[in-house]
Amino acid sequence: MVTNKNELTEIFPKGEKGSSENFTGNAYNVGLIETDSLLTTAVGNVYFEPGARSNWHSHPAGQILIITDGIGYHQIEGQPIEIIKKGSVVKCPPNVRHWHGASADVGLQQLYIVPNTEKGIVNWQEAVTEEVYNSIK
Fold it and tell me: What's the pTM value of the predicted model, to 2 decimals?
């Protein structure tokens, strides 16, 4: 069997296409553990097609990303863009602006964990510019 090295292996359903108000390109989200008052943690999977990325955003209690396939980028405001890939674990501190998404040529699949959801889930902000996204090259 021949496979394209740029194709990702999906381990969770692709989910619903994310809003163009919060994402550039095609990103798909599926919740795996819905928020509740007992665990106060949200867990889900996001699949980013090549070139897709989130807007700048922050999480009141922070966020943990576990990259399950592909290659992408993550940036905390004021810091250099990091390359993330299968096996990477990223901690996004509480109330700190950041973005993440796929590389230009390869998609990205990530699990997200948002703790202490009673503090809020996400605060969406403006789109990441092409200049910022392409500055990794």
Answer: 0.91
